[in-house]
Design goal:
Length: 463
């Protein structure tokens, strides 16, 4: 075991980095298409470089969201649990690192098998989210009585199945977002996005005419059509208001956060840096899609017929940039409302985390806009804010088994899967977990024996 551990660690390192995963799949696809060597090289490098660019932009966004969270907590005297995927994983890794690594590797194998031999043709490419889900599964399954090889096999099968099947649940909504582009949602906040899109259908009658991207702007305010400028101005308002509130409440905290800089200058710098980060994300996404989707034609034609890449939520931001900001604001408001409801009913304050509310809220806004215009974007993202407040609160008792107190996963799918498996094991032991696994396998393979109109399951077929 010790001899192969370095090899497993190398493979695990590759599989947790979406840039390398995308590059690997692009390489295989281009080779399958028999492209010339120079096109294979450039077509492989561009998705890698694009995702590194996307990650760099996301890092800038997250870095500048941190002080905003501090200002809100200080200015409005809010204390409690802040959902954060990275914190939970960092705590769990020291306890469950080997199990998580092996579940991750097996999960990718199962995902490819499911895509090859069933009608769920989605390849999940968001490696860090796969790692997060592997970590959640290792913790919940071990708490449910699974050990060693049994734990890895069951966890890997769950990971591979949900990676292939969750994108299919809302693919009909994803197609509305992308106007038929051959990509799918590969992010474990997906169920909340699909719910947002379902909420948006309440306003489907005039969705296209009232899209967030068709908001009429007077000529003198035409500069607001520039996504970078409008993002910067919107975030500047948020930063200044919260910074002033925090300064009134506790000047020392604000001064420390600003590193001795002038508070107004610091707040504005954070807002402008945030806007730059978002712009970098957009440019990275364009570079990814330009070469990854064509390369997948090779995989689809030669290796996995009908294969569709399931990609990170940020990849969808350029499809509706205005909905990104509206979704973030509406989701954050939903998070605040949910925080007080959860606090009053469960005695736990789930503080709205800036990172999940920006990335997940923005994506929920995009999906809501696709089906219901600006009203769908606002209400759908607001519902997302409620969901990612209630669900993490209900997941807390499941994670308490490992002593992961005062922290929980931030994205909706983690909570749904963790709660479902945890409660099934609590009620029926390992039998309950096996029953859920059996249901997923039936759902995955039974459609092979049923005639459907298309090769890829993306929505319920109309009669």
């Amino acid at each position: 075991m010790q001899a192969i551990l370095p090899i497993l660690e190398f493979i695990q390192s590759i599989l947790t980095k979406p840039a390398w995963i995308m590059g690997l799949f692009a390489f295989v696809g281009l080779v399958a298409l028999k492209r010339p060597a120079h096109k294979v090289m450039t077509g492989t490098l561009k998705p890698i470089l694009g995702y590194i660019m996307l990650s760099a932009g996301a890092a800038v966004v997250q870095e500048n969201l941190a002080p905003l969270g501090t200002f809100i907590e200080t200015g409005f005297h809010i204390t409690g649990v802040v959902p954060n995927n990275e914190v939970v994983v960092s705590m769990a890794w020291s306890v469950l690192g080997v199990q998580t690594m092996m579940i991750l590797i097996l999960g990718y194998v199962v995902n490819i098998i499911i895509a090859r031999f069933t009608k769920f043709k989605y390849i999940f490419l968001t490696g860090h989210h796969s790692m997060f889900m592997a970590c959640l599964l290792s913790a919940v399954l071990q708490a449910s009585g699974f050990q060693d090889v049994q734990l890895v096999i069951v966890g890997g099968m769950f990971l591979g199945l949900v990676s292939a099947m969750l994108p299919a649940v809302g693919q009909r909504f994803t197609e509305k977002v992308t106007d038929g582009d051959e990509i799918a949602m590969g992010h474990f906040g997906s169920l909340a996005y699909y719910i947002s899109a379902a909420v948006g259908t309440l306003f489907a009658k005039d969705a296209e005419e009232n899209s967030t991207e068709k908001i009429e702007v007077p000529e003198k305010f035409s500069f607001l059509r520039d996504t970078t400028i409008s993002t910067a101005l919107t975030m500047a308002f948020f930063y200044l208001v919260t910074a002033f509130a925090a300064y009134i409440a506790d000047p020392a905290v604000v001064t420390k956060t600003a590193g001795g800089d002038n508070v107004i200058v610091y707040a504005l710098t954070c807002a402008l840096s945030f806007a730059v980060g978002v712009t970098i994300v957009y440019n990275g996404v364009r570079m990814i899609l330009a070469d990854l989707v064509p390369a997948f034609q090779g995989i689809s034609n030669k290796l996995i017929p009908g294969a569709i890449p399931a990609v990170d939520c940020a990849v969808f931001f350029p499809y509706a940039p205005t909905a990104v900001i509206l979704g973030f604001v509406a989701s954050f408001i939903g998070g605040v409302v949910g925080m007080f409801i959860v606090g009053a009913t469960l005695g736990i304050f789930i503080i709205p985390g800036m990172v999940p509310h920006f990335f997940c809220g923005a994506t929920a806004g995009i999906y809501g806009n696709a089906t219901g215009g600006r009203k769908g974007a606002a209400l759908g993202a607001f519902v997302n804010g409620l969901l990612i407040t209630f669900a993490p609160a209900l997941l807390l008792p499941v994670l308490d088994v490992f002593g992961f107190k005062n922290t929980t996963f931030g994205d909706f799918d983690f909570s749904v899967i963790g709660i479902t498996l945890g409660r099934a094991a609590e009620a029926f032991g390992t039998t309950g977990v096996y029953a859920i696994l059996a249901v997923l396998l039936v759902v995955a393979f039974v459609p092979n024996f049923i005639h459907t109109k298309g090769a890829v399951i993306n929505h319920v077929e109309e009669e």
